[in-house]
Amino acid sequence: MRLKRNLLSIVIIVVSIVGTVFAFINYQMETGETAHINSNTRQTENPSYSSVAEDFEEFLVDRSNNKDDVSNVSHTQIEYDFDQVQRHRKTHLNGACDRLNQTRTLPRVSPASTFHFIISDKFKFLFCFVPKIACTTWKGIMIQLYHNQVGPTKKRFVKLDEIGSPEKVKKRWQNYKKVVFVREPLARVLSAYLNKLRDGDKKIQTKWERRFGAQIANIARKDDTHKRRNSDFTFVEFIKFILKLGPDIKLDSMKDHWLPYSSFTHPCGIQYDYIGHFETLAYDGPTIIKKLGVENVVQFPEVHGSAAVDGLQTEYAKVPIDLILKLQEYYKMDYELFGYSKEESLKLVLGNRTTSDMPPQVVMHV
């Protein structure tokens, strides 16, 4: 009798344990499924956008994994809400323009204010090109659109400074769609240095050394006898040269490779319809092509890697931290107007270094 009671107790315990296990499994399945559904619902109802610094960091990761091919881009894969991102960027820009008391009227029509705008009269939009921000890619697109408009021709495209009539210029600024791409300033200036003074075409490097070599040597090396050709300028020397000249020098087709782009894109006076970021070029580029209605004429090409992105921390590891901070101050308006965070960008370029590594009261004579 006692044995039967013991066996019955054991059976009850076993059944209880099994029931508990099944209940736990069922609970996990239900809550897991619910969590998944809730997660999807949140993404649909309140799609998020990444901060600029996060875009920048994700681009670095994507490059290391070879995920920068436009043909592989899918909005469902990256959950990138283009329209919401655009609203955020334009809202930030308008707020910054007001906060910084920037002029909100169209710029005065001049060669300097119109030089960087390429026109597509057929499709009624303007592209404001900024050197070292997918400039070659977009110029190639504008060439194709121009040839689609006029047929085979040796002329590449038409720029706004060729229009002549101020009234016609203003009419296009007011009525055409307007596109501009921007980039994290530290990455852009590094790209300019690598492309023009170190790793780029040797003829172009020679041209730049002939134009700026004596100035760079005089500012950074204090060496008046230094030969301008084959001078092998370092990135630090290029930065010192830029800072010494300052941001208010006369604009031309070479200096615009490093000058703050806020100084010639006129972002507070010209109401841009689309603000693309180099860090999200693979997503912004094809979408803007569709928004402009030219996807049947031209396709946005594959996005290739940037040496400046790949070697960002390596190259800035050679630059004193206080010089990096001065460079960020030089690009202050680019950061503030377009939402790039100086603090987050600094973390990305410093890597394991911190501003606490900087000696106290260091003065850089630049």
Characterization of the model:
The structure is a single chain. With 366 residues, the protein is mainly alpha-helical. Helices cover 55% and strands 5% of the residues. The protein contains 16 helices and five strands. It has helices at residues 2-45, 52-64, 75-78, 82-99, 111-114, 135-150, 166-175, 185-198, 202-221, 235-245, 281-291, 307-310, 312-316, 321-330, 332-338, 342-350, and strands spanning 117-120, 125-128, 158-159, 177-182, 274-277. The protein has a five-stranded mixed beta sheet, with helices on both faces. β1 and β2 (125-128) form a beta hairpin. α8 (185-198) packs across α9 (202-221), α9 (202-221) crosses α10 and α10 (235-245) crosses α14 (321-330). It is globular.
Q: How much of the residues is beta strand, in percent?
A: 5-15%
Task: Compute the CA-based radius of gyration.
Answer: 27 Å
- DSSP E strands, number: 5
Please report the number of helical segments. 16
Helix and strand string, N-terminal first? HHHHHEEHEHEHHHEHHHHHH
Shape: globular
Distance between the termini: 99 Å
Uncertain residue segments: 1-77, 359-366
Portion in helices: 40-55%
Query: Which structural class fits the helix and strand makeup?
Result: mainly alpha
Walk across the major sheet and give the strand order. Answer: 3-1-2-4-5
- Major pleated sheet: 5 strands, mixed
The overall average pLDDT, rounded, is: 79
Features:
366 residues, disordered C terminus
SSE topology:
Blueprint: H1 2-45, H2 52-64, H3 75-78, H4 82-99, H5 111-114, E1 117-120, E2 125-128, H6 135-150, E3 158-159, H7 166-175, E4 177-182, H8 185-198, H9 202-221, H10 235-245, E5 274-277, H11 281-291, H12 307-310, H13 312-316, H14 321-330, H15 332-338, H16 342-350
Parallel strand pairs: 2-4, 4-5
Antiparallel strand pairs: 1-2, 1-3
